[in-house]
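Work Package 4 report. The design task specified in the project plan requires that, given a folded chain encoded as structure tokens, an amino acid be chosen for each position. We show below one input record used in the internal validation round.
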């Protein structure tokens, strides 16, 4: 419920209290309706004087003053739940008193007010209180209704000629109160929907941080994701040289901070070049180019990313050594070929790739040199004419389990060559 001067109800908070958002909202609602219905009760008291309804005069005067005093009891430290129940109890007793002295349930001016009592319990206290007051109201309606049907004569203690005017005033107040209650519930519903949407966006962002977008959408839609075959991707695999020896002299916190610094930079490079980060295993980092549906392999992107990783490490190692800190140096292997990619298991989902291409990229990393990007002959054939790269042929290198593999060290071409006019560049895949 949004009062005209938002937050004025906070003046009735107990000193030093720090309620939760939900409790603060209930507090504001209670203070607001106490003063609102207190004012309405005093207005009804005046109407009762005019129409000669003595029961209404005394009941509404007492109720109006009591309701207006309740916020001050909250401010002095009385439980908000107790005060809210007292407030609702006053309204309940008023409906019983005035109903039985103004013609009974079927004709009384206060009968419609019975309907708002459970809503007030729900709004001011909670679901359990709303249910309890609902049952109390049902009992009241049944008792008075059965009594009226049984022939009990409920007196009309004021002149029937002014009954219409009194009902008009009563219904006007009822319309105001119901509007405010419904508006409050509408605000709660919209807040809840907004929170649900915010949580959905957070979940979506988290899911996309773990899985490629097409896999995430398939997983949400079907509960599982089919593995897919890719005829040609480019796998990048990196590892730090002498990681175990160097890390043994570092505290666990320092080690994690150092790895996070490096991997954070690598993640940014992968995003810039459109590679899908697959995973980290200890100090190893793996990413793949060409996994997006509808897009072919882009070995040049993978190679540019690998070279930028080494450039970052060169700067970082230099800075660490100047500061007297341990420094990791890195090898990178790059290989192109077919893979199978997908999600396995049904908990703690992890997107992964499998196949000989992955194994070969790992072997290329192990067979490489510190500070270099070691490229297979397969990948070299796809990018050999790219103007941004230069290659040093290493010949065929024996690799465990793979035999001899043609290898090249890839390096960035000098700016003059990389920036050459388009007409002077060779074609590349």
């Amino acid at each position: 419920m949004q009062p005209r001067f938002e937050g004025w109800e906070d003046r009735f908070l107990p000193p030093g209290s720090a309620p939760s958002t939900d409790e603060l909202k209930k507090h504001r609602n209670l203070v607001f309706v106490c003063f609102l219905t207190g004012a309405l009760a005093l207005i009804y008291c005046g109407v009762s004087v005019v129409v000669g309804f003595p029961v209404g005069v005394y009941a509404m005067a007492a109720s109006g003053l009591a309701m207006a005093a309740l916020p001050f009891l909250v401010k002095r430290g009385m439980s908000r739940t107790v005060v809210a129940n007292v407030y609702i109890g006053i309204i309940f007793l008023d409906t019983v008193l005035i109903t039985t002295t103004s013609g009974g349930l079927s004709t009384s001016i206060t009968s419609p007010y019975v309907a708002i009592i459970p809503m007030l319990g729900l709004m001011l206290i909670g679901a359990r209180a709303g249910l309890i007051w609902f049952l109390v109201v049902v009992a009241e309606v049944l008792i008075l209704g059965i009594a009226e049907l049984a022939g009990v004569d409920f007196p009309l203690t004021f002149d029937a000629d002014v009954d219409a005017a009194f009902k008009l005033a009563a219904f006007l107040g009822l319309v105001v109160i119901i509007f405010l209650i419904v508006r409050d519930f509408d605000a709660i519903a919209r807040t809840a929907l907004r929170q649900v949407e915010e949580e959905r966006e957070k979940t979506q962002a988290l899911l996309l941080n773990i899985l490629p977008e097409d896999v995430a959408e398939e997983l949400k839609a079907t509960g599982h994701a089919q593995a897919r075959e890719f005829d040609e991707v480019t796998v990048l695999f990196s590892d730090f040289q002498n990681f175990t020896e160097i890390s043994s002299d570092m505290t666990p916190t320092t080690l994690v901070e150092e790895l996070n610094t490096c991997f954070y930079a690598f993640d940014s490079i992968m995003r810039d070049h459109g590679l899908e980060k697959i995973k980290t295993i200890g100090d190893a980092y793996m990413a793949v180019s060409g996994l997006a549906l509808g897009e072919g392999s882009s070995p040049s992107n993978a190679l540019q990313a690998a070279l930028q990783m080494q450039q970052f490490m060169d700067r970082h190692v230099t800075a660490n050594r100047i500061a007297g800190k341990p420094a990791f140096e890195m090898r990178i292997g790059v290989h192109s070929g077919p893979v199978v990619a997908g999600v396995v298991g049904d908990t703690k989902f992890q997107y992964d790739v499998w196949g000989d291409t992955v194994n070969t990229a790992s072997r290329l990393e192990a067979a490489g040199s510190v500070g270099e990007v070691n490229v297979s002959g397969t990948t070299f054939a796809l990018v050999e004419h790219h103007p941004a790269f230069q290659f040093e042929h290493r010949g065929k290198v024996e690799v465990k389990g793979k035999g001899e593999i043609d290898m090249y060290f890839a390096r960035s071409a000098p700016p003059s060559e990389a920036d050459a006019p388009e007409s002077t560049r060779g074609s590349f895949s």
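The first strand starts at residue 228 and ends at 240. Validation will be extended to a larger panel in the next phase.
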